[in-house]
Amino acid sequence: DASVVTLVDDGEVPLREDVTITVFDDCVTVTQFDARADREVTITLSLAQARDLGAALNVPEGSSRLRK
Fold this sequence. Notes:
Helix content: 10-25%
Number of strands: 4
Largest sheet: 4 strands, antiparallel
Radius of gyration: 14 Å
Shape: globular
Number of helices: 1
Order of helices and strands: EEEEH
Strand content: 35-45%
């Protein structure tokens, strides 16, 4: 089982392909079609990496570290 979120770029041109984020028990995958390579590209993040990414999006520019 997984939770799936699809982000649709409906902003101004040039638009980007949809992004699909799939959350599993042990990892998160991010998939997007790459028109230049004519294929889907997927990256896999550990749950810790996904947590760190979410935290990084909410802090000012620079280096930071999460404390437990």
